[in-house]
Specification:
The complex is a heterodimer of chains A (335) and B (437). With 335 residues, chain A is mostly helical. In chain A, 70% of the residues lie in helices and 0% in strands. In chain A, helix 4 packs across helix 16 and helix 15 runs antiparallel to helix 16. The longest helix of chain A has 34 residues. With 437 residues, chain B is an alpha/beta fold. Chain B has 18 helices and eleven strands. Chain B is globular and about 65 Å long. The chains are: A mainly alpha (335), B alpha/beta (437).
Chain lengths: 335, 437
C-alpha cells in the first residue's frame, strides 16, 4: 500500500514538469489520484476477477439455472426457452426409490468407496516413499525422478495403456497373474463385471501417489534433523520417530494434501472415461461419469445439471467441515 | 472494496446481457440467409481409415464443386467419437457449420432440436426429388410423418461374414440361413480355442443394432406408436435373451468378447480365431488385416425361419450416414447446392465405391461396382429386408439405456452367471425406467 500512496505534492509537480528524463513513473498512463491512492490494487485485481467470472462463476450460474429447467434435446437450439420445472430435477435425483435416484445413490456410494481407497493408498505409498528417500544413498536422485513419471505422463496415454494391460485375453495383468504365477483358475475380467472397481483403484493410486510423494518429500525437508538426533539419543526407535516427529510436523502439508487428493479423486472423470468408455460397469460407475451420461449421452441436461449442483454442494459441505475441524485442531496444538 | 464490487456487478450484468442476446440470436434464426454466398463450412464424419485419408478423398471433390459453382467449401473431418458432442455444442451456440454429416440413428433426436433444415418436398425438389433415394434410407432420416431432418449419403447394412477355410475344414458347405443353423454351425466350429461367432459386448451401439434386428424378428419394436418405450415386451426380452444365449447357453461366442468395444472381434476373425461375425461392410478392415477377398464369404444375417424379407424376417438395421444442413446457415442456397452435388449420381458412385458403402441413390446403385458378391448382399438387404432403428427423439437415450443393459448381461454371461428370462427382463425394466420423457 505504501508504495502506491505517493505524496500528492510530488504528483502535481510531475504533471507540471513532464519533460524530465529517466523517470519511469512519468511514462505510465495518468491515473486519477483517488484511484492511485485507494483503487489501484483493485484495478490490478480486475483482470483476474473478470476471468474468474467468465471461466467459473458465470458457467456455474448458468448450470444452476439449467438445473431448474426441463432441458432436453428439444431445447438445445433454444435453451432459454426450456420450460421451468422448479425443483423437479432435484426431486427426481434424490428419489432413491425410483430408478434414476437409486442409480445416482449407487454411483455416489461407489464413488465414496473408491475415493476412500484411492486417496488412502495414494497417501500411504506417498509417505512410505518419501520417508525411504530421506536417507541419502546411491541412486536416490534416480528413484526420485522415476517415482514422478506417472505424474508427468499425459493422463490419456497412461490410462489407455492400463486399459490395454487389463484386457482379459491379451492383457499383461492376466498374463502375469494367470499364465505366469497361476494365481487364478481362469483369466479374470478387469474392465467389466465385479473386478472393475479394483482396476479403477489401481490406476487411480498409480496416478495419484506421486503427487502425495512430492508434497510429503517437500514437507520432510522442513523438519530439522536435530529433532531426530535428539530423539534417537533419547532412545526413540524409527517408528516412534515417525509417530512423534514426522507425522505431527507434516500436519500442515497433510491437511492440504488430503483435501486436494479427495477433491481430485472424487471428481475424477478422465480415469474412468478412458478406462471404460462412456458407460462404466455398475461396480465402477463413478459419479462424474454418471452425471456425464445423464447430461451428454442421454441429453437430459436439466437433470444432469441438478446432479452436478448436488455434487458441488456435497463437496462444499465436506470441505467446510474438514477445514473447520483440521484448522481447529491445529490451533489447539499450537496453544 | 466498493470498487471491486462495482466492477464485479458491471461485468456480471454485461455477461448476462451478452448471454441473453446470444440465446436470443439462437431462437430467431429459423430460416437461414444468403449473406455469404461464396463460402460453406462442411463437417464430414470420419469414414475412411484416417482423417488424413478422408481429406485426401474429399478435397478433389470439393474443388470440383468450387469449379462448378464458385463456392469454396471449408472442410473439417470430425472423428466419430467427437461428432455428436460437436453437433450439440454447435446447436447450443448457433455457431456451427453450414453442412454436416450425421449418423442416421441420430436423425430423430437431432430433428427434435429444431436446428436442422427440414427436407420438405420443396427442398427435396432442389436436389432432384425424393424419389431418387431408396425408401428405407429416407425413412432413417427422421421421424415418420415429418419432413426428414437429413438426406441419405452413404448406406450400409449388416451381413454375416464367414471364414471359408474354417468352414471347409469343419465340413460345412453353406453359410447358415436361420439362427438354429447358425448355432449348430457355431457349435461345430467352437473347439480347440476357436469360436463360432464374434461379438462386441461392450459396444453399446452394436448391442442395440443386434437387439433391434432380433427384436424385429420377434415382432418387437422397443417403442410403441406414440414413441413410448416398450423394452420389456415379451418379444424384446426374447430377442435380447437369444442374443446373450449365443454366449451363455450355446457357447459359440468366446467369453472374452464381453469386453470388446474396439472392433477386436474383427481382428479375431482376421486371425482365424472366430469363424463368423455380423458386421456392416467389414471388407476394408479384413483387407487391412491381411486377408484376401477370397478368404471370406458374405451371406445375409440369419432369420428365425424362411428367407430374409420385410416384417418378421427383417435382418438388418438401415445403417448409414446422412447429410444435414444447419437451419441458420448464412449460405442456405449454397448449402442445398452442395447437398445436390454430393448426392448426384456421379459423386454417389465415386464416394460410395471409395468407402465400401452402398449409394442410397437408386441410379447410382445400379452401377456394376456395387454388384460384387459381398456388396450385392448388402444391397439386397437394404432394398428388401432392412428396417430403420426407431426414429424417436430419445433414440440416444435408448442406445445408452438398453445398450448398457445388454453390456451388463454380457458381463454376467461371461462370468458364468445364469441368464434367465427374469434376469433379462429385470435389466430391461431398469433401462426403461430411466427413460425420462
Amino acid at each position: 500500500m505504501t508504495a502506491v500512496t505517493t505524496d500528492p505534492q510530488v504528483d502535481k509537480s510531475d504533471r507540471v514538469t513532464s519533460t524530465g528524463t529517466g523517470d519511469a513513473r512519468r511514462r505510465l498512463p495518468r491515473i486519477p489520484d483517488r484511484i492511485r491512492r485507494g483503487g489501484l490494487p483493485y484495478l490490478l485485481l480486475l483482470p483476474a476477477v473478470l476471468l474468474e467470472l467468465l471461466i467459473h462463476i458465470i458457467p456455474m450460474a448458468i448450470g444452476m439455472m439449467m438445473s431448474f429447467r426441463q432441458f432436453t434435446q428439444f431445447y438445445i437450439n433454444n435453451w432459454a426457452g426450456a420450460p421451468w420445472t422448479g425443483l423437479d430435477n432435484y426431486s427426481i435425483a434424490v428419489d432413491f426409490n425410483a430408478p434414476i435416484g437409486e442409480a445416482l445413490l449407487h454411483s455416489f456410494l461407489v464413488t465414496c468407496v473408491f475415493t476412500f481407497f484411492a486417496v488412502g493408498l495414494a497417501w500411504l505409498f506417498g509417505i512410505a516413499a518419501a520417508i525411504m528417500l530421506q536417507e541419502n544413498f546411491r541412486g536416490r536422485g534416480f528413484l526420485r525422478a522415476v517415482f514422478l513419471v506417472p505424474y508427468a505422463l499425459p493422463v490419456y496415454a497412461a490410462v489407455i495403456t492400463w486399459a490395454f494391460m487389463f484386457q482379459r485375453d491379451n492383457g499383461l495383468v492376466n498374463h502375469v497373474l494367470h499364465d505366469q504365477l497361476g494365481l487364478t483358475d481362469a483369466p479374470s475380467f478387469w474392465l467389466i463385471g465385479d473386478n472393475s472397481i479394483y482396476a479403477l483403484i489401481i490406476v487411480s493410486v498409480w496416478k495419484g501417489w506421486p503427487f502425495a510423494f512430492l508434497m510429503l518429500m517437500a514437507g520432510l525437508q522442513n523438519i530439522p534433523r536435530e529433532l531426530y538426533e535428539a530423539a534417537s539419543i533419547d532412545g526413540a526407535g524409527i517408528w516412534q520417530q515417525i509417530r512423534k516427529i514426522t507425522l505431527p510436523s507434516l500436519r500442515p502439508v497433510n491437511q492440504v494434501l488430503v483435501l486436494v487428493l479427495f477433491l481430485w479423486t472424487f471428481n475424477d472423470f478422465n480415469t474412468p472415461y478412458v478406462l471404460f468408455g462412456k458407460s462404466a460397469p455398475e461396480n465402477a460407475d463413478l459419479i462424474s461419469i454418471h452425471i456425464y451420461q445423464s447430461s451428454f449421452v442421454t441429453w437430459n441436461f436439466g437433470s444432469g445439471s441438478a446432479m452436478s449442483v448436488l455434487l458441488l454442494l456435497f463437496l462444499l459441505v465436506v470441505t467446510a467441515v474438514y477445514l473447520f475441524f483440521t484448522s481447529r485442531g491445529r490451533k489447539g496444538s499450537h496453544g | 472494496m466498493r470498487h471491486l464490487r462495482a466492477a464485479a456487478a458491471v461485468t456480471l450484468a454485461m455477461s448476462v446481457a451478452a448471454g441473453a442476446t446470444g440465446c436470443g440470436g439462437g431462437t430467431s434464426s429459423s430460416g437461414g440467409s444468403n449473406e455469404s454466398p461464396k463460402t460453406l463450412t462442411y463437417w464430414a464424419s470420419n469414414q475412411g481409415p484416417s482423417i488424413e485419408a478422408d481429406k485426401k478423398i474429399l478435397t478433389p471433390e470439393l474443388k470440383k464443386f468450387e469449379k462448378e459453382t464458385g463456392i469454396k467449401v471449408k472442410l473439417e473431418v470430425v472423428p466419430w467419437a467427437d461428432l455428436l458432442n460437436r453437433i450439440l455444442a454447435a446447436t447450443t451456440s448457433g455457431q456451427g457449420p453450414d453442412v454436416l454429416n450425421i449418423g442416421n440413428t441420430w436423425s430423430a433426436s437431432l430433428q427434435a432440436s429444431g436446428a436442422l433444415l427440414p427436407w420438405d418436398d420443396k427442398n427435396f425438389e432442389a436436389i432432384g426429388g425424393r424419389d431418387r433415394f431408396i425408401d428405407s434410407a429416407v425413412a432413417s432420416a427422421g421421424k415418420e410423418g415429418e419432413p426428414p431432418a437429413a438426406v441419405p449419403l452413404y448406406s450400409l447394412a449388416y451381413a454375416l461374414y464367414y471364414n471359408k477355410a474354417m468352414f471347409a475344414e469343419a465340413g460345412i458347405t453353406a453359410p447358415p440361413t436361420t439362427w438354429d443353423e447358425l448355432v449348430a454351425t457355431g457349435k461345430k466350429l467352437s473347439k480347440d480355442g476357436k469360436w463360432g461367432l464374434g461379438a462386441e459386448g461392450a459396444n453399446l451401439s452394436n448391442n442395440i443394432h443386434q437387439a433391434f434386428v432380433l427384436g424385429q424378428q420377434h415382432g418387437a419394436d422397443f417403442f410403441d406408436a406414440s414413441g413410448k418405450a416398450t423394452f420389456t415386451s415379451d418379444g424384446a426380452v426374447a430377442a435380447v435373451k437369444q442374443y446373450i444365449d449365443l454366449m451363455a447357453k450355446d457357447k459359440i461366442i468366446a467369453p472374452g468378447n464381453a469386453e470388446y468395444a474396439q472392433n477386436q472381434s474383427l481382428t479375431d476373425f482376421a486371425k482365424g480365431k472366430t469363424a463368423m461375425v455380423l458386421w456392416q461392410a467389414a471388407a476394408t478392415t479384413f483387407a487391412a488385416q491381411g486377408m484376401k477377398p477370397e478368404d471370406w464369404g458374405v451371406a445375409p444375417v440369419p432369420v428365425e425361419s424362411g428367407v430374409p424379407g420385410t416384417g418378421k424376417n427383417t435382418n438388418s438395421m438401415v445403417a448409414g450416414i446422412n447429410m444435414a444442413v444447419f437451419k441458420n446457415s448464412k449460405n442456405i442456397d449454397g448449402a442445398k447446392k452442395f447437398v445436390k452435388f454430393m448426392t448426384s449420381d456421379e459423386e454417389q458412385k465415386l464416394l460410395n465405391k471409395t468407402y465400401g458403402a452402398i449409394p442410397p441413390v437408386k441410379a447410382a446403385q445400379a452401377d456394376a461396382a456395387f454388384s460384387a458378391p459381398d456388396l450385392k448382399v448388402l444391397r439386397d438387404t437394404l432394398a428388401t429386408s432392412a428396417a430403420p432403428l426407431p426414429q424417436v427423439p430419445n433414440e440416444s437415450q435408448f442406445e445408452t439405456a438398453v445398450g448398457t443393459a445388454i453390456k451388463e448381461l454380457w458381463a454376467e454371461a461371461a462370468a458364468g452367471k445364469p441368464i434367465t428370462t427374469e434376469t433379462v427382463k429385470a435389466r430391461l425394466d431398469k433401462a426403461q425406467q430411466t427413460m425420462q420423457q
